[in-house]
């Protein structure tokens, strides 16, 4: 069986290709270039990643290609990313990138190469029925970023490192002599990479400075533009503690009047929500029963532990009532549902109720 592996230049996808090769698959490596610009230091990081992909593929003796999805990335991911920030929300481009690029554009390309399956280095698992399961390494599980996938896509996908820990992946890479065995994991926004995010965003969206005010309307400073801030943020506000000396936190955005609402204290009541709604809902497989409250767990940020919640699906919107109030959940973030190890799907947070 031919399997096309999406290779990033990192250790996880390299080990995925190695494992599939050892298991007897006809493996083809494909490097995706999805961003054309250089970083803020004038370096095109994709060039070094591409060299690493070539070195790995040469070592394990598989053919490799490079494919440019920059236009698809701009049209299907980045333009929506910018529109969400323009609306004062906090989007997660990695979620869209997985759905639109890796498991759509790339999957189509893999099938054109005669593959029966595609593979990635994600730390998740799936089964023959197309269920999406957490990776066994709780510190690396990436199911949160794949919740928008459908079972039909998952049936065509393999996740060779999903049953391994990161330590095991690096050890196997070292044992096999892979040149990326000790390469640092990439961080940052999707394919945009590691750079000053505020400076990067300023290149695409005009800033609209305005007042920082307390919930009572007292002006305490100026903000650089609402899009640069997220609920719960403490750093970068440029205002010291006043009154009782406690730090200020972002608690809301007044889009109509271009005001950033800040309050003192990391446990200020305005930072907490007891209920919320989410739209743009997708399910991996079967939908939740309509208008029937279900108790599940959910994550509203990637690194967040599972949170107990009662969720009701009305056919368009997910309605959450949390077991315990949730701190600093933000419109635009993904709310991802779980039943044990299985990821059920999720939606984009829309409104919060305090």
Task: Name its key features.
354 residues, alpha/beta, Rossmann fold, SH3 type barrels, Elongation Factor Tu (Ef-tu), domain 3, 3 domains, six-stranded antiparallel barrel, five-stranded parallel sheet, 7 helices, 17 strands, 24% helix
Question: What this model shows, in words?
Answer:
The chain is 24% helix and 30% strand. The strands form three sheets. It has a six-stranded antiparallel beta barrel with strand order 12-15-14-13-16-17. It has a five-stranded parallel sheet with strand order 3-2-1-4-7, sandwiched between helices. A four-stranded mixed sheet has the order 9-8-11-10, with no helix packed on it.
State the gist of this model.
The protein has 354 residues and is of the alpha/beta class. The protein is 24% helix and 30% strand.
Approximately how much helix is present in the residues? 10-25%
The geometry reads as globular
Strand content: 25-35%
Secondary structural class: alpha/beta
CATH class of the largest domain: Alpha Beta
Number of helices: 7
- Would you list the SSEs in sequence order as H and E? EHEHEHHEEEHEHHEEEEEEEEEE
| Quaternary state of the chains | single chain
The number of distinct β-strands equals 17
In CATH, the architecture of the largest domain is: 3-Layer(aba) Sandwich
Q: What is the gyration radius calculated from CA atoms? A: 22 Å
Q: If you average the pLDDT, what whole number results? A: 92
Q: What is the third-level CATH name, the topology of the largest domain?
A: Rossmann fold
Main sheet specs: 6 strands, antiparallel, barrel
Through-space gap between termini: 53 Å
């Amino acid at each position: 069986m031919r399997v096309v592996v999406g290779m990033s230049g990192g250790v996880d996808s390299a080990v995925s290709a190695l494992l599939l090769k050892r298991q007897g698959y006809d493996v083809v490596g494909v490097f995706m270039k999805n961003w054309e610009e250089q970083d803020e230091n004038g370096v095109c990081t994709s060039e070094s990643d591409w060299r690493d992909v070539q070195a790995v593929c040469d070592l394990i003796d598989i053919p490799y290609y490079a494919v440019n999805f920059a236009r698809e990335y701009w049209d299907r991911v980045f333009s929506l990313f910018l529109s969400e920030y323009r609306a004062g929300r906090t989007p997660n481009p990695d979620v869209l990138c997985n759905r639109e690029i890796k498991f759509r554009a790339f999957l189509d390309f893999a099938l054109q190469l005669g593959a029966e399956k595609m593979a990635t280095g994600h730390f998740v698992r799936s089964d023959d029925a197309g269920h999406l399961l957490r990776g066994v390494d709780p510190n690396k599980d990436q199911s949160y970023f794949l919740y928008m996938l459908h079972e039909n896509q998952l049936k065509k996908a393999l996740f060779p490192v999903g049953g391994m820990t990161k330590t095991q992946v690096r050890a196997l890479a070292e044992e096999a002599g892979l040149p990326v065995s000790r390469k640092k994991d990439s961080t940052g926004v999707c394919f945009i990479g590691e750079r000053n995010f505020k400076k990067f965003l300023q290149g695409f969206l005009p800033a609209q400075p305005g007042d920082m005010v307390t919930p009572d309307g007292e002006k305490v400073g100026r903000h650089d533009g609402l899009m640069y801030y997220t609920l719960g943020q403490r750093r970068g506000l440029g205002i010291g503690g006043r009154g009782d000396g406690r730090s200020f936190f972002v608690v809301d955005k007044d889009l109509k009047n271009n005001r950033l609402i800040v309050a003192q204290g990391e446990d200020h009541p305005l930072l907490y929500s007891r209920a919320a709604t989410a739209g743009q809902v997708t399910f991996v497989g079967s939908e939740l029963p309509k208008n029937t409250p279900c108790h599940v767990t959910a994550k509203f940020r990637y690194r967040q532990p599972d949170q107990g919640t009662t969720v009701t699906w009305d056919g368009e919107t997910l309605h959450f009532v949390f077991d315990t109030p949730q701190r600093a959940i933000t419109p635009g973030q993904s709310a991802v549902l779980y039943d044990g190890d299985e990821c059920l799907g999720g939606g984009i947070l829309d409104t919060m109720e305090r």
